[in-house]
Amino acid sequence: MDSQCDFNPLKEELKSQLQRIIQRMQQSLQELEQDDQCLLNEFEQLSEEVSRAESLAASFYLKCYLSSYTDKYNDISHCVRNLSQRRHGALIVVRREDPLEPFITPGVPIRANLSHSLLESVFVPGGPLHDGAVLIEGDEIVSAANVLPLTTTVVTEKKLGTRHRAALGLSERCDALVIVVSEETGRASFSLNGNLFAFAVR
Ligand SMILES: Nc1ncnc2c1ncn2[C@@H]1O[C@H](COP(=O)(O)OP(=O)(O)OP(=O)(O)O)[C@@H](O)[C@H]1O
């Protein structure tokens, strides 16, 4: 992980949120011993706390992995949240150190300053550029409708469609971070170094 994450105030916030969850769980354990207590409402509150921590962790890691390469991680996060809520399928590559040309079949040049609304507009279903991956470099949307290499790894625990296999395929070959929004479920994830992570943006 990038070293500046150690000083990130988001990390402290995440730590205190996790500590609150632990305290709540310990309290529930004690209450379980008391026959007159019903824990069902506790579980609901716990699950809300865990969701908040998950979302905070997503912002934390996105900032860690991207802040050295783009100032637009908040726009990217905002865009992913909106795409996810609308269930607009998307594939977004953020270049880091490695060159991407050897791995990507180029699509349509855009070369525009990145904003969340412009990025969202690319993935409107049925739009001319919605198929394939958008490429971001620095603070710019470089191009859209790029084709990525697919992973050849067989992922046994879950069935992965081609959008997710394309995200994994590129991140196995270079250090780019590749964000996926599933059209089917609206769930967001990102791929880095050949791993796929759930990316809870709320
Ligand atoms: N090699 C590729 N490079 C870039 N984009 C790709 C590639 N393969 C598939 N896609 C994109 O993924 C879309 C198809 O996604 P598919 O439904 O097969 O995958 P999925 O992982 O199940 O995603 P979803 O959950 O959104 O359905 C294509 O329409 C295209 O936009």
UniProtKB/TrEMBL annotation:
EC number: 2.7.7.85
Pfam families xrefs: CdaS_N, DAC
UniProt keyword annotation of Transmembrane present: yes
UniProt entry tagged with the keyword Transmembrane: yes
Residues covered by the DAC domain: 40-202
SUPFAM superfamilies assigned: YojJ-like
Enzyme kind, highest EC tier: transferase
Listed GO biological process terms: cAMP biosynthetic process
Catalytic activity: 2 ATP = 3',3'-c-di-AMP + 2 diphosphate
GO function terms (MF aspect): adenylate cyclase activity; ATP binding; diadenylate cyclase activity
Coiled-coil portions: 11-49
Highest taxon above the source species: Bacteria
UniProt keyword annotations, A-Z: ATP-binding, Cell membrane, Coiled coil, Membrane, Nucleotide-binding, Nucleotidyltransferase, Transferase, Transmembrane, Transmembrane helix
PROSITE patterns, per database record: DAC (PS51794)
Family to which this protein belongs: Belongs to the adenylate cyclase family. DacB/CdaS subfamily.
PANTHER family tied to this protein: CYCLIC DI-AMP SYNTHASE CDAS (PTHR34185:SF2), DIADENYLATE CYCLASE (PTHR34185)
Role, per record: Catalyzes the condensation of 2 ATP molecules into cyclic di-AMP (c-di-AMP), a second messenger used to regulate differing processes in different bacteria.
Subunit text: Probably oligomerizes.
Protein name as it appears in the record: Diadenylate cyclase
Organism encoding this protein: Paenibacillus rigui
